[in-house]
Q: What sequence folds into this?
């Protein structure tokens, strides 16, 4: 799933795709490179980011979604939002996934997704983006994140979303330190054992810089290492910035596995 941030302030590509044509050209390049899905977001959730109004987020994201759906009827388009008003407009425009970094914190979101027949990504985050890195201590990060996701998945099922349409994401970088992120990546098989598809978004994130010293634009190799940690899962959606590099990496990895 390629990332299309229609925002002025995203951490790795903020400001590059703020208008409709730029965002579409970026999405088209990712589709040509082999993306199966595109995640369109109109609000940055990087550490320290300020929230934006629903109307602003909707005006940024929905025209891009509508045009992608019109041009590529088979493409899975996802909307990266926590706001029911934005999700509703995106679903009406043809989005098939609501990617919610707050895991359905707004009580209107899960029933809305259930009514639409779309899928939902429930991502773990501690607090909110503005403050989430203030306290990254856990007694047991894996146990706590997985327990919370299990509880949110139960809420999604109770709202009427079928289990195969409820995807779980440990929220790499969302209120976790580098060691916490690494432990969550190492524990992905345990997350998958909860019985839902898993989503992993480690692309270009800060823990890669902390480990290697690489600046945000130079983190493709580290991002691919995180992909390697996720790709053995039975059902996984990889949220990435660098689609061509990821597809090449997965093509060779899969070919070698197939030749064994
Ligand atoms: N990470 C970001 C945003 N949305 N959604 C899911 N499911 N998982 C993630 O790990 C995730 C996410 C943050 O990355 P990015 O979109 O590149 O930056 P920003 O939030 O600054 O727009």
A:
């Amino acid at each position: 799933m390629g990332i299309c941030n229609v925002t002025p302030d995203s951490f790795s590509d903020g400001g590059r795709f703020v208008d409709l044509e730029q965002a579409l050209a970026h999405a088209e390049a990712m589709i040509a490179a082999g993306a199966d899905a595109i995640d369109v977001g109109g609000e940055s959730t990087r550490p320290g980011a300020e929230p934006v109004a629903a109307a602003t987020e909707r005006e940024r994201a929905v025209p891009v979604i509508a045009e992608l759906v019109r041009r590529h009827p088979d493409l899975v388009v996802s909307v990266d939002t926590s706001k029911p008003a934005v999700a509703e407009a995106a679903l009406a425009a043809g989005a098939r996934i609501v990617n919610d970094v707050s895991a359905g914190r707004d009580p209107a979101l899960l029933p809305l997704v259930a009514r639409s027949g779309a899928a939902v990504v429930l991502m773990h985050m501690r607090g909110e983006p503005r403050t989430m890195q203030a306290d990254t201590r856990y007694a047991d990060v894996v146990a706590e994140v997985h327990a919370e996701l299990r509880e949110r998945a139960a809420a999604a099922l109770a709202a009427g979303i079928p289990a195969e349409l409820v995807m779980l994401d440990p929220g790499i970088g969302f209120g976790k330190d580098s060691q916490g992120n690494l432990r969550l990546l190492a524990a992905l098989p345990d997350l998958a054992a909860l019985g839902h598809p898993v989503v992993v978004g480690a692309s270009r994130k800060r823990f890669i810089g902390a480990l290697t010293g690489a600046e945000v634009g130079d983190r493709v190799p580290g991002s691919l290492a995180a992909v390697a940690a996720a790709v053995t899962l039975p059902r996984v959606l990889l949220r990435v910035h660098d689609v061509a590099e990821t597809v090449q990496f997965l093509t060779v990895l899969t070919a070698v596995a197939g030749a064994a």
Remarks:
- The first helix runs from residue 20 to 32.
- The radius of gyration is 17 Å.
